[in-house]
Amino acid sequence: MRLEAAARMDVFRKLWKARKLxxxxxxxxxxxxxxxxxxxxxxxxAYVLMVTAVYWVSEAVPLGAAALVPAFLYPLFGVxxxxxxxxxxxxxxxxLLMGVICLAASIEKWNLHKRIALRMVMIAGAKPGMLVxxxxxxxxxxxxxxxxxxxTAMVMPIAEAVLQQLICTGLAxxxxxxxxxxxxxxxxxxSDKEETLDKNQLELLYRNDSNNCTKQELLxxxxxxxxxxxxxxxxxxxxxxxxxxxxxHLPQVAIEIPNVKRVKARRDSQYPTKRDHMICKCLxxxxxxxxxIGGLITITGTSTNLIFAEQFNTRYPDAKVINFGTWFIxxxxxxxxxxxxxxxWLHFLFLGCNFRETCSLSKKRKTRREMLSERRIHEEYAKxxxxxxxxxxxxxxxxxxxxxxxxxxxxxxxGWTSLFEKKGYRTDATVSVLLGFLLFLIPARRPxxxxxxxxxxxxxxxxxxxLAPMITWKDxxxxxxxxxxxxxxGGYALxxxxxxxxxxxxxxxxxxxxxxxxxxxxxLLACLLVSAVTEFASNPATLTVFLPILSAxxxxxxxxxxxxxxxxxxxxxxxxxxxxGNPPNAIVFSYGHVKxxxxxxxxxxxxxxxxxxxMLAITTWGVPLFNxxxxxxxxxxxxxxxxx
Length: 644
Description:
Blueprint: H1 2-17, H2 19-31, H3 33-37, H4 41-58, H5 63-66, H6 69-77, H7 82-87, H8 92-109, H9 112-124, H10 128-143, H11 148-173, E1 181-182, H12 186-199, E2 202-205, E3 217-220, H13 221-225, E4 239-242, E5 254-257, H14 260-270, H15 274-297, H16 303-315, H17 324-351, H18 355-358, E6 365-366, H19 368-383, H20 389-408, H21 428-439, H22 460-464, H23 473-479, H24 482-501, H25 503-510, H26 519-533, H27 539-557, H28 561-571, H29 583-590, H30 596-619, H31 622-626, H32 633-643
Antiparallel strand pairs: 1-6, 2-3, 4-5
Helix pairs in contact: 2-4, 4-6, 4-24, 6-24, 8-21, 8-23, 9-10, 9-19, 10-11, 10-15, 10-17, 11-15, 11-19, 11-29, 15-17, 15-29, 16-24, 16-27, 17-30, 20-21, 24-27, 25-27, 26-28, 26-30, 27-28, 28-30
């Protein structure tokens, strides 16, 4: 019996290891009777849609590879010609993305993101509540223009350095955590140091050596304050892992995963007090949530926004309502409200309700750890040196791109496109690609200057070549998310197939029983469904599957499609309850400060906040902005064409 049980378990183990291969082979074969028994265009398109959706949700194959399924199945089943499918894989949003990545490459290369983040944290101060809010604000701002994944990977090491400073000073000060010190004046600073030396106070600091974890060293308080003690900076990592999927975020970046043994030790014994552990949890989770919130603000903030914009403009070409300006006007208040409510929720969950203690802006009384944390942040900022010429150029391009996007077609006044005779030829991608192209031409050195650039990001080529550009093709290639480009193209191909085959009209007819529901109820059901599915499936895949269905549903119920599509697009980003929900969650979880139970508890509240705020927006200021009270003519024309 034992041998049989062992053999059975061995078979189960082998099947589990081969589960992805089984899904890849079994799903197409099990669904094959659908197009064979009903050889219609709708059935063939539904077969391709279901196979692709299962591949995306299960991640049995890479997302980009699964997006290529329509490229060969549509021609084989006679749904679309091969040339027609190929045209769907490169759209206007692809060029928009390429221009944005050029700017992001310049921002990262010249450390402009780090300067912005540190400066905003310096303004916020070192009080726990204000420190969390400061990190959230800078993360939101960066995530508006960079990908959520890159932003989290950039900001989290800075936050980790501050947290390690907090832990080290807490170990030295754990016996009197509530002790405060008057902010030193210039005259009394020297006398305070001399008094400390006269008392010759010794504090035990436990320092884990990478080879010998039992080693302990005795340090004076002065050594701690001068930063000579080990552990004030980032904890070294033992290996590097790469996030294999972007899950709704533009570039793929290398993510440093701390050693598992160190993470376990940190959870068990390294935190001086429970309050210190709670501060670490709060700050870590606030960064991933802020990155998600920031990605909602701009149409280029995350790939799901791009997927919605392109599919909407393709399905409704006469609807000239979605552009950078209108999306920003609608989403910016959502982000501000979500930022404040998320900060309050995390503060209540991890830091309690004593906002007066944790958020005081007074500089007269500070604890020792707060003073040292501020010193650490100022030291990191000082390492950047004075602002460099490439940073100035990048900042100018950043502002110029934003202004040109806003003023292209603002709606309430004529935009700069009205200066051209032919209308409709210029889009946001035109601006993006133009400025991105110029970054390959503009030299990284100041004109007529013999001194080399002192920025740490400058490489040997830029030092030897006075005309070396701001970015090189390698810089661009390192950040360009080709998998997302193919994934978005696969979504466009599926949408085109649903339109040509008539599948979207058939789906709409099956949803007619929902016609008795009010528009807000339909939107709420769509938001809850999408936000639940995206916890386990990738954001772009979830949205790509649901957009055609929700569009058909809106047309059938004669609801303005924007009433359901925009909230669903935003709610698909709220996969914040699990580490697998999106890459920023995985990055934060890898630092070891939070457990899965912490992420589920905090993420559930953030999810509810997000759905509630989005519903508030679509039923208030979204109504006059997009004229949601009427079934628009551009949707009427699309509905009539589909029926015919």
